[in-house]
Design goal:
Elements: H1 2-17, H2 21-32, H3 37-44, H4 53-89, H5 108-122, E1 126-127, E2 133-135, H6 136-139, E3 164-166, H7 173-180, E4 185-194, E5 206-217, H8 221-236, E6 241-246, E7 252-261, E8 271-279, H9 281-286, E9 294-302, H10 305-311, H11 318-321, H12 324-327
Parallel strand pairs: 1-4
Antiparallel strand pairs: 2-3, 4-5, 5-9, 6-7, 7-8, 8-9
Bound molecules: adenosine-5'-[phenylalaninyl-phosphate].
Length: 331
């Protein structure tokens, strides 16, 4: 019996000293666990004379109950203390001034692209993506460039393999469409284009183009000119003038270059935006399109030239330098 009270006292002392819920759990195991001190005493009961067993059993149960109660009480204390300490550790200072989040805005070339898409979708054209890494044939051969034609020299580019180039013109969308679609149709694309080019105020090795084309019955140069005039009005306002002059591109016949002038900018000087023309019959025939029934036009122009003309920017390198003082002007 004295063993029971010794173990009980030892347990209560250890409980009092436990300074964390973890330490308390160890005390609990040491006394009440399967091979804890009080449990070992309980097992001795079998060896006692039968008459002594009830009193021994009652004493040990009482001791167990006391120890359990003390553990529970200490646990409540320790948990409360630990929670208070955790709150203290995780306290946040809500009076600290906030760090202002600066909202980004779209780049002027993205805003221009969005506007181009609005205008062409509004005119009934379907938007398509086209690969930036293009097979040589789509970029050149399929567009009626004869082998080694000098027109390719103007569009020297970056060769990834002998057969794969970074596209020099968004016109490369045309053969992809002609392979899979039957006219009548109207498509356009906007994207990055690349050329092996000395960089100056109006040229870069990486720039953007928009290309659009349509094929239908009775399509003429008048439709092309009307569309480009409407495009100029949407981009630069009603007082923008458009000019077409004969030009050569292997994939159109006849071909023109397309320039605009607005009285507000560059003293009304003409600025070339791109090229255009009626789709060459060689290309239509190659894709089995009946040239007696159908005709089509196509144009392609430099996207950078649009904000240059619209806002009087005289150096296109500014669009790529990411100087916020420049970019923030275009809300
Ligand atoms: C073409 O790329 C033809 N694919 C356009 C075309 C499409 C003609 C459909 C007929 C029918 P060109 O090489 O001229 O044409 O380029 C068109 C426009 O892209 C140029 O007028 C210019 O605005 C822009 N551009 C061309 N090279 C650069 C460059 N290095 N940096 C910035 N813009 C450029």
């Amino acid at each position: 019996m004295s063993d029971i009270s010794t173990q009980e006292q030892a347990a209560l002392a250890a409980i009092g000293q436990a300074d964390s819920t973890k330490a308390l759990r160890e005390v609990e195991l040491a006394f009440l666990g399967k091979s804890g001190h009080l449990m070992l005493l309980m097992r001795q009961m079998g060896q006692l004379p039968a008459d002594d067993r009830p009193a021994f059993g009652a004493a040990i149960n009482a001791a167990k109950a006391k120890v359990e109660e003390a553990i529970q009480a200490r646990q409540n204390e320790l948990k409360a203390a630990e929670r208070a300490e955790q709150f203290e550790r995780e306290r946040i200072d809500i009076t600290m001034p906030e760090r202002r989040a600066t909202a980004g805005r779209e780049h002027i070339l993205q805003l221009t692209t969005n506007r181009i898409k609005e205008v062409f979708v509004g005119l009934g054209f379907e938007y398509r993506e086209s690969p930036e890494l293009e097979h040589f044939d789509y970029n050149f051969s399929a567009l009626n460039y004869p082998p080694d034609h000098p027109a390719m020299d103007e569009q020297d580019t970056f060769y990834v393999t002998d057969q794969h180039v970074l596209r020099t013109q968004c016109t490369a969308l045309q053969p992809h469409i002609f392979e899979t679609q039957k006219p009548p149709f109207r498509f356009f694309t906007v994207g990055r284009t690349f050329r092996n080019e000395a960089v100056d105020r109006t040229h870069s090795h990486t720039f953007h183009q928009v290309d659009a084309f349509m094929i239908d019955e009775n399509v003429t140069m008048a439709h092309l000119k009307g569309t480009l005039r409407q495009f100029a009005t949407a981009m630069f306002g009603g007082d923008a003038k458009v000019r077409f002059r004969p030009d050569f591109f292997p994939f159109v016949e006849p071909g023109v270059d397309y320039a605009i002038s607005t009285p507000k900018l560059f003293n009304g000087r003409w600025v070339e935006l791109g090229g255009a023309g009626l789709i060459h019959p060689n290309i239509m025939r190659r894709y089995g399109i009946d040239t007696e029934k159908y005709t089509g036009w196509a144009f392609g122009l430099g996207v950078e030239r649009i904000p240059m003309m619209a806002f009087g920017v005289d150096d296109l390198r500014l669009f790529l330098e990411n100087d916020l003082r420049f970019l923030e002007q275009f809300a």
